[in-house]
Amino acid sequence: MQNAWQRFKANVPLRRAVVLMIIILFLYKLRSMMNTILLTFIFTYLVVHLVRLVQKHAPKIPTGLIVSVTYILILLLLYFVITVYMPMLVGEITKIFKSVKAFYESNNMPGMMKYLKHYVSQAEITKQVKNGMTIMFHTLTSVGTLTVATFMSLILSFFYTIELKQMNEFSSLFVKSGIFKWFFEDVSFFGKKFTNTFGVVLEAQFFIAICNTALTMIGLAIMRMPQIVALGLMVFILSLIPVAGVIISLIPLSVIGYSVGGLRYVIYIFVMIMIIHAIEAYILNPKFMASKTELPIFYTFLVLLFAEHLWGTWGLIVGVPIFTFLLDVMEIKSARKKKQKKVTQ
Q1: pTM beyond cutoff 0.85
Q2: Is 193 in the same domain as 157?
Q3: Mind telling me which residue stretches traverse the membrane in this protein (predicted)?
Q4: Is 106 left (phi over 0), alpha (psi -120 to 50) or beta?
């Protein structure tokens, strides 16, 4: 029995496969806390990255000062969003709904609604209203849960980054432990892999989303579209979805564009989104993602499809980075990467 245990610890690939399964099972058991876990990782990664960037150019600035100033700015930003931006956003979303309502009224939709109501039973209407109320209740509950998870993540990431040196020193003690040294070595191995793939890809997608949002808002401003701030926020959130996000944003933008300027505006928006998508595909993705994923578009959409089914909205954002992490763990590299490696050698 002891020899079998020693052979198991010496068999690194088998050992790491078992540890990876344990980690996946552990995260599955904590799936109700997944919002907090993912947001904590994202905040921590971005702040640690910022600390290292600042200290690279100004090494004498202490970590605690950088972290404190960063979180004070975050709190001020949250205060601004809640007190100033949210009321403005609600007002702009209300205007959007009014624009859509005007679109339906101007295209003889009331007559069509009366025609449909004639053939739809009162019981069916009541059922749909109940379903709508249920969806609204779940939406409000989800928003409340996400708000709590966001604040908890900010607190956890703050305490991690404010004591970054102490955290690294204390965490290294687990790797030096006796009986479970091999286990924590493998956990550390996967942690570094996860940070180097998931974090970097997510950061790249974040910068791509900022570029897409800026270009879209410039185009909407040129077209004199209303509610640019609300539309910009929507485009930014959708742009966090790799490849598909920019295309998905075409649907609501086209509806609002038609209500403002008719078919001509729909064509303008379609051309604008296609140009932005081309910039993302041929300029931004090669610049930010070239050495990160190298995934064909088919695989990207396939991963998004399954990830959305497994993790909902979060799957659309983290699906590709997690898939890239698994490829890195399995040491699966694209032909282009291998070719580049041979050329450099």
Answers
A1: no
A2: no
A3: 12-30, 36-54, 61-82, 135-162, 200-222, 228-253, 265-284, 296-329
A4: alpha
